[in-house]
Design a protein that fits this description.
disordered N terminus; Aminopeptidase; single chain; alpha+beta; 14% strand; 23 helices; 12-stranded mixed sheet; disordered C terminus
Length: 661
């Protein structure tokens, strides 16, 4: 049969489209062919340099392995895959898929078993996870696979670095281990200070320190168990110390993963034999074949059964817990209870926090990249009930949990619950209804007030319409003198934020000299912002606060907080003038604590809080609700209500009863 091929002239656009198609096709073919070519190249190099044993020799080596070696390697393999399943749980929590339970762990084990044998890990791993977890989208499955692969290589590099420093298989490999370890430490530090990275419209969020620690632990268990499985399959003719073989296996595993060869075949064997030149090559290859049977073929067969036999390995449904039955609700910061005990909880209106109900208890919470911070004491509910749910809530985010600046009562109950507590601050408190300037304890205050009065300073409560422009100029002048304003745990200048506070202004000759703002509830006022121009009359700050105390007394407010000052070993080096200023009012000093489930979580929380205070993000404007919008909810709020159902009527009554005096 004769075929005639007619050629047609192509336009410029047609030629460009053809070239693009050919280029894309070539690139895809190369990506598929390169791993296979890598395997063939490594096997050719192996044969050329060392020589491959015959099938009869391999069979003899396998038959000579003792039964206890096969059994021990199988147990070590099971431990390795158990750790890999936990690895997937950490990845699911990082991406907030809500699927970090037993089913996700089984899917992770099966996906790794399948992909490490089939090769092309990103594709095969994504398919396996998507297939085994019905609630997981293909996009999320790809993100999980990419995150697992990337973080595994990073933590493997760190572990290999430590192993090479402690047990170098070849002279001079110690400095390579040092470089790997130093690179990992620098990467972790960078991920802490810059927790997210933007690439165009793509935003990448690095795993938290808690997540990295967990990933490091699971990776260590995985690779040590896998290396032990290989060591237990060594024939009697190969005498290699465990401490020598495991670092070699770590390096070989990294080479195998980077090659993307199916099962790492070729790069793994070539690297192991190259790093152990004194060992019997034939016997060592026999051990590697046995290792592949135990660590690759057997898990891959089980994974294929899970993938292609529906129902195999499916998780059994568990009974709902008390937390499941009670439900939860996450609401915006604007929904803070107006009658809350701690007025300062309103700080979450500016720092991105929210109100979180855990069972029947409500907390003012900020979710940061590293930890979940519960501000002050619980807003409502029974305090002993909040500690376990708060720790679980933080664990679902791969974060540490802490109570920040909680009172002595909450601190005592936290200690009874097994949490660790640390005294970090003292809060200055006065009683407006009984406050008086008389007495020796207020001598310094009276002197400052006289100075302000002689200078002609007039202090008054701000009207509903604030002089925002003038106040903004004062804030800018204050920052030029004192440096940028700290944030997260303390307020910053923002018109919507100030509009919800009590504000007092100090005037002299028609010029605004300074202002203070206070969070206000019926039971407490709390000092927030103090902004004074550098050349203001002496005593301006004292006069502003004294006027606020008098206004609180007129409204029968029983408690006014001058906010807290640091109270720890290095406190005397942190703004001693602030303590002197508040001491002029002879306040009652109340201790404030940081509470966390463990000392490591306490350390992470402290470091994260320092970062958040000294390197806060942009000021988040407080959105004002007009009267026309009263009683209506936005689309975002409706989405929150759908995702976090409200308490039922019985639970609301229980909350009200517990909040009653």
């Amino acid at each position: 049969m004769l075929m005639t091929i007619h050629t047609l002239p192509l336009s410029g656009a047609g030629r460009g489209h053809l070239w693009t198609s050919l280029k894309d096709g070539f690139g895809a073919g190369f990506r598929w062919a390169a791993p296979v070519a890598m395997t063939v190249l490594c096997l050719w190099a192996f044969e050329a340099k060392l020589g491959l044993p015959s099938l009869a020799e391999l069979g003899h080596t396998l038959a000579a392995l003792p039964a206890w070696g096969w059994l021990g390697a199988s147990i070590a393999t099971a431990i390795s895959f158990w750790a890999l399943g936990r690895y997937d749980s950490v990845a699911h929590r990082h991406l907030q898929t809500g699927l970090d339970g037993a089913a996700a762990r089984r899917a992770g084990m099966a996906a790794i078993a399948f992909s490490q044998t089939a090769g092309f890990g990103l594709i095969t791993g994504t398919y396996a996870r998507w297939r085994l977890l019905p609630g997981l989208t293909a996009l999320h499955a790809a993100k999980i696979t990419a995150l697992v692969g990337f973080t595994f290589m990073a933590t493997l590099a760190a572990i290999a670095g430590v192993a090479l420093v402690l047990f170098p298989p070849i002279q001079g490999f110690g400095w390579i281990g040092g470089l790997l370890l130093a690179g990992f430490i620098c990467a972790v530090a960078a991920s802490f200070w810059f927790p997210s990275l933007r690439i165009g419209k793509l935003r990448l969020r690095w795993p938290s320190l808690i997540a990295l620690t967990a990933l490091m632990g699971w990776t260590l268990i995985d690779v040590v168990a896998a290396g032990t499985a290989l060591w237990m399959l060594l024939p009697d003719t190969v005498q290699i110390a465990w401490s020598t073989l495991v670092p070699v296996y770590l390096i070989a595993l990294g080479a195998a993963i980077l090659s993307s060869a199916p099962g790492g075949a070729g790069p793994l064997e070539l690297t192991v034999c190259a790093l152990l030149p004194s060992a019997d090559t034939g016997a060592l290859l026999g051990a590697l074949v046995a290792f592949r049977l135990v660590y690759y073929v057997l898990p891959a067969a089980l994974a294929c059964g899970m993938l292609f036999l529906p129902g195999m390995g499916r998780a059994k449904s568990s009974a709902p817990t008390d937390a499941d039955l009670l439900g939860a609700r996450r609401t915006p910061a604007a929904d803070l209870p107006a009658t809350r005990a701690c007025a300062e909880a309103a700080i979450i209106r500016q720092n991105g926090g929210h109100v979180q109900a855990l069972g029947l208890n409500q907390l003012a919470i900020l979710d940061s990249p590293q930890c979940t911070v519960a501000f002050f004491d619980p807003l409502s509910g029974h305090t002993p009930e909040v500690f376990a749910p708060l720790a679980a809530y933080a664990r679902q985010r791969n974060g540490s949990a802490c109570f920040y600046k909680c009172g002595a009562r909450t601190g005592t109950q936290a200690r009874k619950a097994g949490w660790k507590i640390l005294r970090i601050a003292q809060e200055a408190v006065v009683r407006p209804t009984t406050f008086s300037d008389s007495g020796s304890s207020h001598r310094q205050l009276r002197r400052k007030l006289r100075h302000a009065e002689k200078a002609g300073l007039k202090v008054m409560q701000a009207p509903a319409s604030l002089p925002i422009d003038q106040m903004g100029a004062i804030d800018a002048a204050w920052q030029s003198t004192h440096g940028h304003a700290h944030g997260t745990t303390m307020g910053r200048f923002e018109p919507g934020y100030l509009a919800e506070q009590r504000v007092f202004l100090g005037w002299k000759d028609g010029r605004l000299e300074g202002f203070v703002s206070l969070h206000a509830t019926p039971g407490e006022w709390c000092l927030d912002l103090i902004r004074i121009v550098p050349d203001a009359p002496d005593g301006t700050g004292h006069a502003l606060v004294r006027t606020a105390i008098a206004a609180a007394a007129l409204e029968n407010v029983p408690r006014l907080s001058l906010a807290a000052v640091p109270d720890h070993r290095w406190a005397k080096h942190t703004d001693p003038g602030l303590r002197r200023f508040k001491s002029c009012f002879a306040p009652r000093w109340e201790p404030r604590y940081l509470a966390s489930p463990s000392w490591p979580q306490m350390a992470v929380s402290l470091i994260e809080l320092l970062r958040l205070v000294h390197r806060p993000g942009p000021v988040q404007p407080v959105l004002q609700t007009s009267s026309d919008d009263a009683g209506q909810t936005s689309d975002a709020e409706n989405d929150l209500l759908d995702r976090y159902p409200a308490h039922n009527e019985l639970e609301q009554n229980e909350i009200a009863l517990r909040a009653a005096p």
